[in-house]
Design a protein that fits this description.
179 residues; mainly alpha; Transferase(Phosphotransferase), domain 1; protein serine/threonine kinase activity; Prot_kinase_dom; non-specific serine/threonine protein kinase
Length: 179
């Protein structure tokens, strides 16, 4: 949305026609570049914000507080006069951009077709802290069970893996107890 080109294709891809599998791997590995003609009008602050949001490691990724305090959102800089990359602007920039966007959408469709499954959060840092706290106080948390820690959507990461349909558990949509 900042420049009309996804950051998972670019100078390092070598080809404007990246395969869907390549795009998925780049997303999983955090392999992205924000260089080239389409990124030259995007501010350094905006690029830093995107890098922070696309960080693969959740413990290093920007959280909401950091996002709200980012230089790009709060910098007080005058609004950019760079034209928004609308479909008309993108279309006039040639087929390469359209190809990049289509390849990204195909990658996501493939991921959806193969399935996105939630990993267990039993070993997530938050679950470990809650277990330690529960053991040290000798009492139970408000939820009264450990099921809330294993279904917490805030500590769950999605991954595309091949599993049999029998091993897929339906997601539980409740919030964990606040300690």
């Amino acid at each position: 949305m900042l420049c009309g080109q996804v950051p998972f294709q670019g100078a390092r891809s070598g080809s404007p026609h990246s395969r869907a599998a390549d795009i998925i791997n780049k997303i999983k590995e955090g392999d992205f570049v924000m260089q080239g003609e389409s990124w030259e009008h995007v501010s350094d602050e905006a690029k830093e914000l995107v890098k922070g949001l696309l960080t693969v490691d959740p413990s290093c990724r920007l959280n909401l507080s950091e996002l709200k305090e980012s230089d790009w959102l709060c910098g007080g800089r005058p609004l950019s006069s760079t034209p928004l990359m609308t479909p008309d602007v993108l279309e006039s920039s040639g087929m390469a951009t359209k190809t990049f966007v289509n390849a990204t959408f195909m990658a996501f469709k493939r991921g959806k077709r193969e399935g996105v499954f939630l990993k267990s959060v039993e070993n997530a840092p938050l679950a470990k802290r809650r277990k330690l706290k529960q053991c040290s106080t000798g009492g139970e948390t408000r939820s009264g069970s450990s099921s809330s820690t294993s279904s917490s959507s805030s500590t769950t990461t999605a991954t595309t893996t091949a599993r049999s349909p029998k091993s897929r558990a339906p997601p539980q949509n409740h919030r964990p107890a606040i300690s």
